[in-house]
Specification:
InterPro entries: Gfo/Idh/MocA-like_OxRdtase_N, Gfo/Idh/MocA_oxidrdct_glycsds, GFO_IDH_MocA-like_dom, NAD(P)-bd_dom_sf, TAT_signal
Number of strands: 17
Oligomer: single chain
Order of helices and strands: HEEHEHEHEHEHEHEHHHEEEEEEEHEHEH
Organism: Sphingobacterium micropteri
Protein name: Gfo/Idh/MocA family oxidoreductase
Keywords: Signal
Strand content: 15-25%
Pfam families: GFO_IDH_MocA (PF01408), GFO_IDH_MocA_C3 (PF22725)
Strand order of the largest sheet: 15-14-13-12-8-11-10-9-17
Length: about 425
């Protein structure tokens, strides 16, 4: 890890996860006097925010949802009705604690003990910073940023969270999934020797498109279609593929020293798809010479694949989110096969462990660091493909390219806007690289 120490970056913490990451350290109680109720606030009322709230209530702790915030009124009301119908009096969110607009997160954070951050990831750094400043425990969805200035902001807030003993869990749920925990523990204990190569995949058919509506401002259109704009999403190599990239870093126990690759807009090429690519193929090179190949794409009507494989000096491994994990020796003999029977739901498990620690007034989780560094790996991979350059980790850390708008307002313009035909500029390696590195 020496390549971190030579920069003015926060030193990377352990790559272990969950309760293994820290000793349990007592913290001051989050509860109101005479109460064991943990008050939660939801920031970001889309599908993932709704799911995160359901998973939090499945933790078994005494929770109450007391505040909600979203940029859009309709998103907030729809999610409120869904959660209220399911959880009844566990939801106490009067109109006075429903906050709409770009700044609503600040008030919602003040109302709660624990905040769930589930907006598009472009907002994650400022929301996380505010939550830590207010002294709140945090669950935040992945990825944790979309550009390198955002990563620096998250790491600074992570350091402050550690000082304040605030538990932080990041929604890289494979780190809370039993098959990954058991298999990677064995790999790191040397069951298949030293990992020298690997392949990680997120190949799927892509996601939704929301048509432009009459009288929408450009800011609203991009917010509604946040997946297709880098200031909001970071491109799918960051937004989705961060899961598999994180597994590569976890298995290796370190982060790559350089990244190169290629990508393009080959299938999803119309103006409905904003500025992002639909395919990436990158190589993560680590300081011991190991190379992990990473592939992700959004092609419809072709084969899909979402899993990870690794080759080592004494064997190989296969892992997947479908509760699979198999290790073989060099002769092809199976030395471990994970039994998925009775395995907990990983989305719920991360909340179960987080809220158990909070209920016990223990400091256990500091996921923000590995969440930030795996997000950074994806960002560097994206920029390598956009520019056609080999990008070294340390050089990337100096980037000042900030993708966020100068002003957050419905009548303000994002930095990327369409031409007269409604088409957005997209990255062309070797031609418009200054926007991305």
């Amino acid at each position: 890890m020496q390549h971190f120490k030579r920069r003015d970056f926060i030193k990377a913490g352990s790559l272990l996860t969950g309760a293994a990451a820290l000793s349990s350290v007592p913290v001051s109680s989050v509860f109101a006097a005479g109460s064991d109720v943990i008050k939660i606030a939801l920031i970001g009322c889309g599908g993932r925010g709704t799911g995160a709230t359901f998973d939090a209530f499945a933790s078994g702790q005494n929770l109450k949802l007391v505040a909600m915030a979203d940029a859009f009124q309709d998103n907030l009301e729809k999610t409120y009705q869904t959660i209220k119908e399911k959880f009844g009096d566990k939801v106490d969110v009067p109109d006075s604690r429903k906050y709409v607009g770009f700044d609503g997160y600040k008030a919602a954070i003040r109302d709660a003990d624990v905040v769930l951050l589930a907006t598009p990831p472009g907002f994650r750094p400022i929301h996380f910073e505010e939550a830590v400043k207010a002294g709140k425990h945090v669950f935040m969805e992945k990825p944790v940023a979309v550009d390198i200035p955002g990563i620096r902001k998250v790491l600074a807030a992570a350091a402050e969270a550690k000082k304040k003993k605030l538990n932080v869990v990041v929604g890289l749920q494979r780190r809370y999934q039993t098959n990954y925990r058991e298999a990677i523990r064995r790999i790191q204990d040397g069951a298949i020797g030293d990992v020298v190569s690997g392949q990680v995949y997120w190949n799927s058919g892509g996601v939704w498109v929301r048509p432009r509506e009459p009288k929408q401002t450009e800011m609203e259109y991009q917010m509604r279609n946040w997946f297709y704009f880098n200031w909001l999403c970071g491109d799918h190599i960051v937004e989705q593929h961060v899961h598999n990239i994180d597994i590569a870093n976890w298995v290796k126990g370190k982060y790559p020293v350089s990244i190169q690759g290629t990508g393009s807009r080959a299938h999803r090429t119309g103006k409905d798809y904003g500025e992002i690519y639909d395919n990436f193929a990158i190589e993560l090179t680590y300081d011991d010479g190991a190379v992990v190949y990473s592939q992700c794409r959004h092609f419809e009507g072709v084969s899909n694949r979402v899993d990870e494989t690794f080759q080592a000096t004494n064997g190989r491994a296969f892992l997947s989110a479908g509760n699979q994990a198999i290790l073989w020796d060099t002769n092809g003999n199976e030395i471990y096969r994970h039994d998925p029977k009775g395995n907990p739901n990983a989305y719920q498990q991360e909340h179960k462990e987080l809220f158990a620690a909070i209920a016990k007034n223990e400091y256990v989780f500091d996921d923000a660091q590995h969440g930030a560094y795996s997000t950074l790996t994806g960002i560097i991979g994206r920029n390598a493909c956009y520019t056609g350059k080999v990008i070294k980790w340390e050089e990337a850390l100096t980037s000042t390219v900030d993708l966020s708008p100068d002003v957050y307002a419905w009548d303000a313009l994002p930095k990327i806007v369409p031409n007269e035909n409604g088409e957005y500029p997209y990255p062309i390696p070797g031609k418009n690289t200054d926007r991305y590195i």
